[in-house]
Amino acid sequence: MKQKRREVIILRTTLIDKKLLKVMAKDAGLSLSKYLIKAGLNKNLRSRLTEDELETYKSLVKFQNGLTSTGNLLKKKDPRFNQELHNLVDEIRVHLKNFQ
What we know:
Elements: H1 15-27, H2 32-40, H3 51-74, H4 79-99
């Protein structure tokens, strides 16, 4: 069961710090409250992907899927080619994990 957040913490900061924290929270796709909780608990905070990064991610996923399918079709005909293709797929997979 998810606990409701009922406790309040008052935090004093400068106006500039407050604005900066709000921008950082927005970039992470979080409310200021959730952002501060995650930051305070040393949880992973990441910015959302830009439109260009999202398009690149989608393209890499398509390439990975296409190459995997091609490799599976050619597995019996040329094992070396298949191995090289799967090495390429693994390299793309590593780059995709950097987005997550």
